[in-house]
Every structure is written in structure tokens, then in C-alpha cells.
Recover the amino acids of this structure.
């Protein structure tokens, strides 16, 4: 479950998840995790804006924790992938 995700090494402290967020808590309450997933996918695959995709995915994870275990796992994988892509891009290595 989600508590398993929270105890895994490398998962950000849920309280710190919104640090990079630009969405206020009230806005997160009005947004669905699926909407944030689609938006993160847009920024990752279409706009190629990995920083923005990471921010949106982080908001999605914050929203999904404790409410939607499958969505939380998806966001956790997405965040790891985005960090890897950013690292490759910043290192000058591109696939």
C-alpha cells in the first residue's frame, strides 16, 4: 500500500513534497491525480520541460499519497524517470 511506498528509501518526505510546488493546497484539492498525470506527461513528452514535469508529478504524488496507491506508485516511477532524464540532459548525454 501507500504506507509501503512511504517507508521505501528514496521517497521524499510527504511533508516536503509540496516544496517545489507552485499549486496552493486549495488548488490541489480541486485537481484530480489523473489531470496532473496527463499534465506531467505533456511537459515530459511534448514540451520536453523536465523541470515543469517534475513539479507537476511532485504535486500529483502529494495529492495521491494516502488516497490513491496506484496513482502514487505511478507518480513515484515518473519522478524517478524525470530525475534520470534531467541528470542525463545536464550531463550532456542524450538518448
Amino acid at each position: 500500500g501507500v504506507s509501503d511506498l512511504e517507508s521505501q528509501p528514496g521517497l521524499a518526505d510527504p511533508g516536503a513534497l509540496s516544496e517545489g510546488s507552485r499549486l496552493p493546497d486549495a488548488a490541489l484539492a480541486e485537481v484530480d491525480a489523473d489531470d496532473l498525470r496527463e499534465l506531467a506527461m505533456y511537459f515530459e513528452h511534448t514540451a520536453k520541460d523536465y523541470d515543469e514535469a517534475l513539479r507537476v508529478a511532485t504535486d500529483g504524488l502529494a495529492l495521491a499519497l494516502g488516497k490513491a496507491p496506484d496513482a502514487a506508485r505511478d507518480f513515484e516511477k515518473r519522478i524517478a524517470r524525470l530525475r534520470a532524464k534531467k541528470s542525463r540532459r545536464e550531463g550532456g548525454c542524450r538518448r
Q: What stands out?
A: The chain is about 65% helix and 0% strand.
